[in-house]
Inverse folding.
């Protein structure tokens, strides 16, 4: 027998042994999983909703149209109690809707201490759901240790409003402030090549100025004054306060706190913003008077939390999908090229969702829920083409604008059969820009130069270590101007407006939904529910004869299997967190730095052309 045969047999035996060991380990793993599964089944049914309970609605972090991040990563994070501080607007709205007809829910406890930011249109949508809930005769008790401006807006729509004695109602109004970098760019000797069309297209201003331009100041002042008026009017009406009471409180806060002996929480009560100051124990006693004590803990009240309530109700009643449906596709976040996770809009990934609606025979119409300040022009056009494919197939599309649908967000909305905005939507910002920084002068400071040869005038022209030549600058500007012309031409065509008129209301100017309706940029003012109704009407569907079908990224079978296994661990009392080590401080810092750098470099339009608006109001 040759040496080669001996070696092959030797390693073959090792391989067969390892393969047998692998199969044996797989068998043990399957047995372990089955044991866990049957252990979970023997653990009893999930905790039921009490027959008399308060529904606890406690939004955490930002109110959003779509939870950001990869669905698998989010699901794993939820199992490991590591969830992003975000709350879906649709979850809050659905909880109020379901609870209004649920005899087990006596009252809603709206706890707002952890609520972060939220666009006014999102707050208005939840407030409308609260008003509908109260029409059922049930009460809403709002409370917080501290009321942010956003939290107070929702609290004002409750029947009773309580705050901790050490709390504060801080209503700062709306503002828009940005950092400007021109001096820093000059100091670092960076050539920040800027190309744009639009007198009001202010996205690039921080790189070429040290202050806000008069045009941008005019636009932003108009927006924030309209938002503050909407906020005041809504809160005053909800609380039954005198006209101007909210602005008066903000303008004269120091005087009112002085009158209250320096007690800012008492000042809020004195001015009618809060009904009463209650500590946490007192608040629990109040809620006990409505729903009784918790069966397992007599120190608190009988309650079910929103997440548990929704999970059980959806399990019992399904997701509202019927034989005929209006599909809902959420486009939230920056518009980027390629496939992107939820919380951003990918040209390819969002187009894929639209194609799923196209081939789904149960889908008769589509609501595209847009909450975006824009981004890549190329990705926006990829998405717009898929909207056209739906329309060509006889499936009407309604664009439903959230807090922001501007620049690229307006680009993907305007092509719809009907465009519906909230009065508090920020929209418009019809303009185009491009930015290409080069660092050759910065490198010279470090003693680095660049030289070489090329075959055409374009060789080496996009290198960040070389100065951009004049002919390259001319080319970029031509591309930008052509993109702007395409933008206003498309708006003129789809809105049936004169192109010169569109140009006059474009130029990067931003508008509220009210202004956009007056200018002809949207078809009607309304909310998400109005958009669903409009989509059904356009598809010829009878009211009540169709459902809603949310189309979003699905987990792969492998991802679902992993989640099921981790869930079994949790149900059987084993903490999945034992499978991973806690990150070190260095790893935490590295992760945060990676996120920061990823955000700074995320824009990836293949031509470097963007339609983006930094137009969120705070």
């Amino acid at each position: 027998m040759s040496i080669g045969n001996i070696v092959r047999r030797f390693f073959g035996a090792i391989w067969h042994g390892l393969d047998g060991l692998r199969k044996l380990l797989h068998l043990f793993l399957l047995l372990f999983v089955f044991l866990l599964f049957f252990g979970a089944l023997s653990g009893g049914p999930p905790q039921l909703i009490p027959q008399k309970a308060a529904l606890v609605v406690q939004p955490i972090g930002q109110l959003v149209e779509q939870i950001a991040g990869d669905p698998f990563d989010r699901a794993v994070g939820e199992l490991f109690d590591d969830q992003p501080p975000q709350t879906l607007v649709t979850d809050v709205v659905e909880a109020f809707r379901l609870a209004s007809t649920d005899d087990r829910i006596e009252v809603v406890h709206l706890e707002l201490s952890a609520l972060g930011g939220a666009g006014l249109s999102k707050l208005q949508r939840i407030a409308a759901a609260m008003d509908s809930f109260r029409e059922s005769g049930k009460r809403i008790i709002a409370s917080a240790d501290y009321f942010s401006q956003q939290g107070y807006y929702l609290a004002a729509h409750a029947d009773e409003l309580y705050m901790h004695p050490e709390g504060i109602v801080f209503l700062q109004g709306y503002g828009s402030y940005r950092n400007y970098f021109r001096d820093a760019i000059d100091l670092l000797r960076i050539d920040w090549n800027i190309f744009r069309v639009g007198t009001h297209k202010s996205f690039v201003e921080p790189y070429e100025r040290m202050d806000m331009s008069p045009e941008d100041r005019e636009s932003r002042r108009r927006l924030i004054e309209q938002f503050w008026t909407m906020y005041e009017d809504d809160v005053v009406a909800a609380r039954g306060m005198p006209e101007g009471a909210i602005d008066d409180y903000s303008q004269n806060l120091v005087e009112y706190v002085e009158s209250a002996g320096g007690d800012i929480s008492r000042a809020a009560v004195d001015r009618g913003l809060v009904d009463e100051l209650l500590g946490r124990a007192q608040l629990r006693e109040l809620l006990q008077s409505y729903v009784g004590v918790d069966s397992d803990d007599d120190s608190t009240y009988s309650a079910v939390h929103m997440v548990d309530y929704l999970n059980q109700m959806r399990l019992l009643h399904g997701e509202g999908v019927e034989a005929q449906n209006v599909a809902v596709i959420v486009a939230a976040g920056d518009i980027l090229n390629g496939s992107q996770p939820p919380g951003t809009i990918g040209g390819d990934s969002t187009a894929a969702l639209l194609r799923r609606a196209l081939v789904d025979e149960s889908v008769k119409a589509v609501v595209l829920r847009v909450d975006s300040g824009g981004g890549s022009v190329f990705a926006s056009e990829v998405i717009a083409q898929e909207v056209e494919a739906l329309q060509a197939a006889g499936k009407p599309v309604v664009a439903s604008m959230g807090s922001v649908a501007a620049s690229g967000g307006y680009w993907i909305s305007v092509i719809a059969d009907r465009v519906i905005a909230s009065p508090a939507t920020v929209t418009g910002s019809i303009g185009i820009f491009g930015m290409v920084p080069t660092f050759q002068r910065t490198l010279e400071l470090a003693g680095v130069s660049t030289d070489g040869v090329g075959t055409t005038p374009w060789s080496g022209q996009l290198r960040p270590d070389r100065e951009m030549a004049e002919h390259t600058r001319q080319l970029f500007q031509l591309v930008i101007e052509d993109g702007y012309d395409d933008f206003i031409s498309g708006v003129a065509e789809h809105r049936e407006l004169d192109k010169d008129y569109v140009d006059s209301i474009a130029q990067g100017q931003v508008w509220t939904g009210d202004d956009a309706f007056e200018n002809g940029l949207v078809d009607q003012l309304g909310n998400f529910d109005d958009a669903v109704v409009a989509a059904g009407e356009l598809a010829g569907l009878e009211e009540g004869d169709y459902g809603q079908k949310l189309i979003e990224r699905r987990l792969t079978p492998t991802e679902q299997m992993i989640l099921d296994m981790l869930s079994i661990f949790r149900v059987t009392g084993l903490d999945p967190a034992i499978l991973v080590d806690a990150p070190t401080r260095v790893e935490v810092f590295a992760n945060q730095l990676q996120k920061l750098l990823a955000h700074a470099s995320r824009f990836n339009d293949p031509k470097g052309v963007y339609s983006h608006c930094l137009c969120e109001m705070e």
In short: Residues 38-45 have pLDDT under 50 and may be disordered. The longest helix spans residues 3-41.
